[in-house]
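User: quick one, fold this
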Amino acid sequence: MPKNRTRSEVYQSYKARADSKRTKSAQVADWLTSQFGTVWFLALNAAWFFLWIVWNVGWLGLPPFDPYPFGFLTMVVSLEAIFLAIIVLISQNRAAHIADIREEMELQISVLNEAETTKLMSLLCLLLEKHGIDVTGDAELAQMLRPTEGTAMEKVLESELG
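Assistant:
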């Protein structure tokens, strides 16, 4: 990690880089998702459907173009739901991909951190022994000084996942 940068800054810069590499369709999907996920969009839909229904039951004095039971309205609402769901899924898939990469980065950092911590503990034990402090009887320390078996942990997790 570069000097003076926190992990969250590294992650944020990764997200910024990932956002800058989005395809046009992903950019459009993200923009649409941000617009559709608002109270204003909900209010616009409610007003639109209210106007549609009021018009088509004859309360405005205009000839209905979609009389009750509003078959055309049902089709329009169904199509809107389909398109909204697909747009949201596109954005969620991209966000999940970024989250997967972040999770992998965090795992790699944790593995590296574990190795570095074990090495530091080994060096500390050497210093303690050099100054006449016996740590060989500490079973917990002996366990900590053993390298972590990542593959063994992976096998346990895989067996638990099925």
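User: anything notable?
Assistant: Helices lie at 7-20, 24-36, 39-56, 71-130, 139-145, 150-161.
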